[in-house]
């Protein structure tokens, strides 16, 4: 294993040389010093040189996003090729949801892991030596494929895995192939422990190519994050988890009635649940509507702005609305007759 001092010396040496020289010694697949993961694709400025952030996603899992959502994370490590975040007891895995790509996220559970090989390479902008995490395999799956990022919520991109020979193309949701780069963060302040989109990331002192990700202002709810149904007598409660993101409770958060449609919108779902006599209406996976009369304590949505990020699937019936996500419900509650009907405020 290569230690931090050696890396530091190598990187410093590279900074003063005029061309990138790749060391002949191969890198092991463990990185014990803390690092931040930088995203590079020099032809795609919307993602190039931004960072991988962690977003709490229920059940202790962390979803992986490029800002503005998620928490800047400076203390990743690599264990046998697998990205770990020890403070949260999670490591990078692939799975859960498959459309034209599959989710790359972090969990403490036993999902098949994403395995990387640290590799020396030259920075595409500065030609300085850097350590890249080259994707090797999805554990127990064929070797190959690549990591990509797909536009998600607001300005954010979520991390995905595209398998080898992938021929499924969703023209509306391009997944941009990216390189993950190890930025050692020794000497930087520890990661903030509070989940907030207003966390101001420190600029890694070891990077000469970093771009500080933009952050969203606090106290405002991003426009379009949910559909205002208050005129229809429903208020938005937030993005609520299904069983996959929790540790107990029923399989379905809303188990009263359901329908699925190419014309799904939040209005349609609320009207459907009202007609069926239910109090709660939730849209999910672009085209599903679920109704119920109770929401268990473990399934209550959070009220942080960041928590809205996982309900980022556009409705099949209206691309300007979000209809939940991958095992996440855009959750609405019917207002009491005569009472003030207001959406939850997200901070
Ligand atoms: C940048 O993204 C495009 C689109 O996914 C891809 O074709 C290209 O190979 C990527 N470049 C790098 C260096 O990953």
TrEMBL record:
Signal as a keyword? Answer: yes
- How is this protein positioned relative to the membrane? Single-pass membrane protein
Signal peptide annotation: 1-19
Give the GO cellular component terms, alphabetically: plasma membrane
Keywords of the record:
Glycoprotein, Membrane, Signal, Transmembrane, Transmembrane helix
Q: Name one Pfam family in it.
A: DUF7909
Stretches for region Disordered: 190-224
**Superkingdom of origin organism:** Eukaryota
| InterPro entries the record matches | DUF7909 (IPR057231), Kremen_rcpt (IPR051836), WSC_carb-bd (IPR002889)
Location of this chain's protein in the cell: Membrane
Question: Which PROSITE patterns does the entry mention?
Answer: PROKAR_LIPOPROTEIN (PS51257), WSC (PS51212)
Q: Give the Low complexity compositional bias ranges.
A: 190-223
Q: What is this protein called?
A: WSC domain-containing protein
Give residue ranges for domain WSC.
Answer: 233-335
Q: Which PANTHER family match?
A: KREMEN PROTEIN, PROTEIN SLG1
Q: What is its main location?
A: membrane
Q: Does the keyword Membrane apply?
A: yes
